[in-house]
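Two entries, shown back to back:
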Amino acid sequence: MRRIVLMMSVSLDGFIEGPNREIEWHRVDAELHRHFNEEIRKLGGLLDGRVTHELMAEFWPTADQDPDSTAEMAEFAGIWRDIPKYVYSRTLERADWNTTIVRDVVPDEVRALKEQPGGDLGLGGADLAAAFLRHDLVDEFRVYVHPVLIGRGKPLFPESYTPTDLRFVETRAFGNGVVLLRYERDGTAPVTAADPGAADA
């Protein structure tokens, strides 16, 4: 069965973006971008909320036609266009580039998607990740910690009073100071009561 893999960049103090959605502090150089390309190419699909999807769709479909794009950026443009994408939104009416619109996070539907053939499914976006976490649907965590403190912003993980046990899998340090922390669910954590599915409207 395919797994749901949460893949997110985060500041050392735990934020994925600043209070005004700032992400210019992300330290993505050629080495890290090649790593992202390699990992995303292996996936069978991307799961995003509307905001994240629209930000990606504004730039990546034609990024390989931009003379200012690096080789890594041009390569990722093709990867992004081709990979199946599932955007969770209650308001989005249309989406291009091999994208399926899903209205809500319904556990049985997610499990059915996991049972389809193909690679693992990459999950992005804090709001969507929170919905998946409430339903105990995240199998693996790949957190890329950037060497910066931004002070305030949107935290990666929602507040929770239920401990979630994880099993350490891997760590990797990149030349620019970013560190990958990779963990999997260990299968023994208690399942919490799930809230209604939430989409990034």
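entry 2 starts here
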Amino acid sequence: MPILVITGTGTEVGKTVTTAAVAAAAVAAGRSVAVLKAAQTGVRPDERGDADEVARLAGAVTAAEVARFPEPLAPGTAARRAGMSPVRPQDVAEAAAKLAVEHDLVLVEGAGGLLVRFDATGGTLADVARLLNAPVLLVASAGLGTLNTTELTARELRFRELELLGVVIGSWPDSPDLASRCNVADLPEVAGAPLLGALPAGAGALAPADFRAVAPNWLSARLDGDWDAEAFRIREAP
């Protein structure tokens, strides 16, 4: 798995922090890692983007972006409003392939969800995964409503004959409600793929050294961690 595409069921589900955790666990396992942000929106040229945040938390990783647009909008819309050339799936795939030559693992982080449009022709992160023949990791929220968005994304991946590696809960609350606890069992069922981790709420606020030390505890062995999905399910079962 030299390239892994990371998407979310929507915005603000913990995608960037999850990407950082996957990167940190891989680095701890002795792998060289690059993180590629397909399209960074809502950030000025002098500000830190998501790839920079991953590097801050994860440590010794290569951070890169394909394109950056100033307004916090879908990449295609942001490019059009800024009068800038949009990012194309082919651009992202080529950048990821180049990084894969010199790294053991390349993490390609999308913007928003799987079908957020990059350009006027309707190119998306799903097209990037197809061009790279890369598996997709889906970051989902914990609570009410997540089953619908998770299943819709998983169905789209299957329709496109793309591999869904698994699901990670991007922010597990300190005091989970009934829906969240039930979703631990239901998420892998609706996704048709295993639950590969759960990040505690506020993980991104940890000091980088602390984040790197504990990141493998949040992810399963498939992601270079030691998190046990079955033990987590039994512990959180309602």
